[in-house]
């Protein structure tokens, strides 16, 4: 079985995220990390490989500039077998549909039985890519999976909802996204970090995939950021020192703000 995991390079979760007022695009010059939601996707794929056996492969795929190698290295150190990096200046500024279209090209070229994604990224947070990817690959999409198992060419899953979960079944190939409650991602071991150095990473361009530059990138984006504003600084705040009346004073404060 061929399992493919999508991984995204995002600004460090603790870094201040800024939109460049001139380009209206996210400033990506600071520290970057593997999108935290993707660690659960990698872990889910590795656990599936351990269940299904050694003939199963786990390939990670990312659409990123050269520095995307950082997230690939981490995923390979966790235990993925190999990596695909779609790295082309023509991809810059792609919106969700452009990113999904380009990633679908790379994944289709590699071949797949199951694609596993995180539920969202920590920078754009649209949560739309897994569904768009399933559409471009022409396969079922199953999102917010908190548990799934594979039996032959059947995928059974529990899909997390606000009120509990749904039991859903679909045939393979398919695309799934997994929630944070599905597992506890492993830390790369020293052995894993060393092994990652020799695992293959294939770098692809849009031309390698036969994708027209006009189909992706800022020029093809259906959504355009027209303006942005800094979040207003936090208003003045009161500190309540509890001298036995802390609870009452907080209640009075909430009442005064019509919150109670
Ligand atoms: C601040 C900001 C706002 C944006 N707003 C919009 C918008 O409103 N509409 C729009 O169409 N685009 C928007 N974009 C662009 C969009 O973020 C990118 O196209 C992005 O690559 C895909 O969307 P996402 O990060 O929201 O993915 P999500 O759907 O939130 O992420 C789900 C999963 O998709 C996978 N994934 C996402 N991007 C990649 C990648 N490059 N390589 C590999 N896997 C990936 C990851 O596994 C991730 O866990 C925005 C970008 C920024 C920085």
Description:
With 260 residues, this protein is an alpha/beta fold. The chain has a single domain (2-220), classed as Rossmann fold (3-Layer(aba) Sandwich). It contains 6 helices and 11 strands. It has helices spanning 36-52, 69-78, 96-110, 129-137, 190-196, 246-256; strands at residues 2-6, 9-11, 32-34, 57-63, 82-86, 114-118, 141-151, 154-161, 164-171, 174-178, 201-204. A 9-stranded mixed β-sheet has the order 9-8-7-10-6-1-4-5-11, with helices on both faces. It has a two-stranded antiparallel sheet with strand order 2-3. Helix 2 packs across helix 5. 35% of the residues are buried. The mean pLDDT is 94. Flavin-adenine dinucleotide is lined by residues 6-8, 26, 35, 37-38, 62-64, 94-96, 99, 103, 117-118, 120-121, 123-130, 223.
Beta-strand fraction estimate: 15-25%
First and last CA, distance? 56 Å
Approximate shape: globular
Query: So what's the CATH class?
Result: Alpha Beta
Radius of gyration: 21 Å
In terms of quaternary structure, the protein is: single chain
User: How many strand segments?
Assistant: 11
- Structural category: alpha/beta
List low-pLDDT spans.
none
User: What percentage of residues falls in helices of 4 or more residues?
Assistant: 25-40%
The main sheet orders its strands as: 9-8-7-10-6-1-4-5-11
Count of helical segments?
A: 6
């Amino acid at each position: 079985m061929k399992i493919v995991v999508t991984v995204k390079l995002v600004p460090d979760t603790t870094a201040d995220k800024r939109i460049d007022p001139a380009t209206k695009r996210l400033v990506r010059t600071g520290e970057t990390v593997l999108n935290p939601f993707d660690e659960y996707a990698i872990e889910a794929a590795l656990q599936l490989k351990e269940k299904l056996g050694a003939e199963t492969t786990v390939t990670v795929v990312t659409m990123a500039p050269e520095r995307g190698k950082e997230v690939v290295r981490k995923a390979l150190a966790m235990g993925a077998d190999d990596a695909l990096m779609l790295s082309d200046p023509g991809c810059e500024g792609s919106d969700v549909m452009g990113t999904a279209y380009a990633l679908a090209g790379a994944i289709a070229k590699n071949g797949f039985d199951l694609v596993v994604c995180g539920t969202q990224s920590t920078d754009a947070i649209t949560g739309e890519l897994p569904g768009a990817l399933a559409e471009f690959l022409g396969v079922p999409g199953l999102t917010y999976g908190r548990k799934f198992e594979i039996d032959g060419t059947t995928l059974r899953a529990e899909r997390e909802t606000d009120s509990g979960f749904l039991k859903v079944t679909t045939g393979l190939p398919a695309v799934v996204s997994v929630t944070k409650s599905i597992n506890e991602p492993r830390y790369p071991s020293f052995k894993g970090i060393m092994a990652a150095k020799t695992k293959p990473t294939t770098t692809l361009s849009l031309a390698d995939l036969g994708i027209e530059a006009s189909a992706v990138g800022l020029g093809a984006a259906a959504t355009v950021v027209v303006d942005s504003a800094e979040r207003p600084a936090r208003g003045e705040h009161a500190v309540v020192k509890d001298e036995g009346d802390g609870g009452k004073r907080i209640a009075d404060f909430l009442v005064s703000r019509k919150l109670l």
